[in-house]
Amino acid sequence: MSHYDCPCMEKCPLHYAMSVIGGKWKVQIVCALTNAGALRYNALRAKLDGISNTVLATSLRELEADGLVVRTVYPEVPVRVEYRPTEDCRALLPILEQLSDWAEARMAAAQPSEATLMLSLSKNNAVRFDK
């Protein structure tokens, strides 16, 4: 049986993967940490325009619990905390790149060509002169 036959399985591996990396911000957090390496909380937050403190903190805790992020606390004053990707997280990056390529191709195919767009605009914005 293929693992793609999810309805027949008790536990779907794809469902599990999406539960780990799903959500509005988790993929962006994973990408930011993988590209930058170890980051402090505020540096990571600066890379994620629009994320709230609550969502970032919750997502980091979940990613840490799932083994994708390591949180390191340095015994300094003030306390310094850094987040870095694990090897499991780094192994996920090629898969996310493939997913990105797939989405990019679909987005390009879904966008109307410039000629089609111009024709549509000219038909919708036709000027009529009534006598």
Q: What labels would you give this structure?
A:
131 residues, mainly alpha, three-stranded antiparallel beta sheet, 57% helix, globular, disordered C terminus
Describe what you observe in this structure:
This protein has 131 residues and is mainly alpha-helical. The chain is built from 6 helices and 3 strands; from the N terminus they run ααβααββαα. It has helices at 13-21, 26-36, 41-47, 53-65, 87-110, 114-124; strands at 39-40, 69-74, 80-85. Strands 1-3-2 form a 3-stranded antiparallel β-sheet. Helix 2 (26-36) packs across helix 5. The radius of gyration is 22 Å and the shape is globular. Residues 123-131 have low confidence and may be disordered.
Describe the sheet with the most strands. Answer: 3 strands, antiparallel
Using the alpha-carbon principal axes, give the shape.
globular
**Model regions low in confidence, pLDDT < 50 over at least 5 residues:** 123-131
Widest β-sheet, arrangement of strands: 1-3-2
Could you tell me the mean pLDDT?
Answer: 83
- Count the beta strands: 3
Distance between the termini: 72 Å
By DSSP (H or I, 4+ residues per run), the number of helices equals 6
Portion of residues in beta strands equals 5-15%
**In terms of structural class, how would the helical and strand content be classed?**
mainly alpha
Helix content: 55-70%
Write down the Rg. 22 Å
Order of helices and strands: HHEHHEEHH
